[in-house]
Target: Flippase
Amino acid sequence: MPKLRLKLWIKRQPDFLTTLVRGAGVALSVQIMSIGTIYASQILLARWMGVTEYGIYDFAIALSLSLAFIAGLGLPTAVLRFIPEYRIKQDWAHLRGIIRGSWQQTLIASLITVAFSTAVLLWLVLHQRLDYSQTLIIGIWIVPLIALANLLQQIIRAFQQMTLAYAPELIIYPLVLIGIAFVWQLHQSLSSTVVISLSILSMFIVLILQSLLFQQKLNTEVEQAKPVYAMSQWWRVALPLMLFDGSSVILSQTDTLMLGVMLGAKAVGVYGAALKTSLWVNFILKAVNAISAPMIAGLYAQGDRRGLQQLISTIARWMFYPALVIGIGLIIFATPVLQLFGSEFTVARESLIVLILGQLVNVGTGSVGYLLMMTGHQTQAALVMGATAIVNVVLNLIGIHWLGIVGAALATAFSMMLWNFWLHTLVVKHLNVRPSILAAFQA
Model:
């Protein structure tokens, strides 16, 4: 009976809400599986490696993620902006052009980034002491794979193929990595250098598999079209998005990188457990954004402001209540949850609580970033994120110096709140829609 009522409710909704219900169900299933898989893999790696080696690995991955977003040149979000438009217009030539062109430019940019970064690290090794330099240098070479995987994920996501977009990187990759690592640790101890090397191998396998599967799903019209490149138009959108993405990376990785520089690998490992645990609060935000971003672009292109408000109010209600329940549960059981990583990680309890509160604000303000980026207001969003990234660096410098990992958590949570409130103000001003959970209550 409940299933029948759900079907009748779906039939009564506008087409875009029906698509959201069905797509979000798939995206949510993938996100639940992915965060569970990734979280379990991090617990196992932390137990197999120990807190210090795990911290070195986490630091190397944070550095590689930062460089990969720089190498992406803003193209992952740009394709998410243009592909839905080309699909609506059936502009197969430009669609093929942006897929091929973005792939080629990302590969070239990532190889240049790797070459330059490797040269800098080697110079540092020769001229001054650099801790865990071997792990960092090897880790740099995962950057092209991460950059291409990010781009391919957003291309597939723009086609609303949610399972294919997210499952390879978020489910299959950690499973492959943990499987290979498990076999390795049966015979030899796992060091950060070994795990980074295994990560490169695992991501290469998964990227090839995902590329082949996506190629099979492309329409004949797209495959046969002669590519047309609107480079100036794409770059006008991509460059501000590169600032936005770069700022997002700074905001998400500054705490880890600065802890590694200021307090060492052990602090990174302990804090990393709290940071990864706090991400349970916003996984529904990611799941719903996965399907809603191209829908936002489509509704805005059609001038349907009423539909856009209805969409984001629905999103706000779907996201906040589960996030609140998860957040309260994690705060209550913070110590036993962190103990899953090992007894040394329970000192991160206060940091975990602070990060959870920041994530609840992140979810409660709604999909503010995507609302601006998908509607042509990417420049304003990028400026906000850039300013907040600078604030975040300063706050982490002060917070870590005085309060250690708790200071890093406070700086990250405050920065998260700042950019969300700021972007929310811009959404209301430029789009005249209200995306927060408070607006959803009033509606």
In short: The chain has one domain: 2-442. The mean pLDDT is 85. Residues 2-442 form one domain. Residues 92-127 form the longest helix (36 residues).
